[in-house]
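One-letter codes give the sequence; the fold follows as tokens. An example follows:
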Amino acid sequence: MDVLLAALRELPQSPEPLLQRLVELGNRGEESRALVTLHLASGTHVRGLLLARGDDTRYGAAWILQEDTGQRSSDDLVYVPIAAVESVTVHGVAALIEHLGAAKPPPSRLELQRLAKEASGTLASSLGRVIAFEPDAPADEPSARAMAALLKRFAGVLRDVASEALGKEALAAVDRVVLHAAEALRVAREGDALVVSAPLSSGAGGLPSGSELKSAVDDAL
């Protein structure tokens, strides 16, 4: 579910601008090309790797796909009129989100601090007071991206915890959330801090899920 929410934030929500965005992403390299199924007004559908948008002034614009036959080496191209597309299925959203993230510069120390303040504000609206988020600033790009994603995800988890009376009571003794890299997930109480250790080196795709984080928080509190 976290991956789907990320897709909603990163991708346009209508077929034509969505496909245009995916074409632009695919222009960065073959590994970034999107596998899609185009659902047509005729009731049929076309599945393939989205390659380009062809703008023919005489016959109308079309999406150009490498037909998916189960083999990436297929050399069959399909031209689908843009006006014929009613909806789109995007396959492998998780990988696409990774490619979209890689196209952006990694978050700087200042950006992580901004995200930390944002996470505090998100939680304060549910908790009624501020808990400070204190993230490490990883040196490598995948870990920095993962830390940014962890900040947002963990703030959401604590907001869910705070929505329950017992969870809100347990968080009353927590003033800080400290986040840093580790080989495995661990959440522990240390004085007034909730210390979160999580694997970051594989990027945002290697982070624990929201349910895994919540289970670790419940155990720590």
Strands lie at 35-40, 45-54, 62-67, 77-81, 85-91, 132-135, 176-181, 186-190, 193-198.
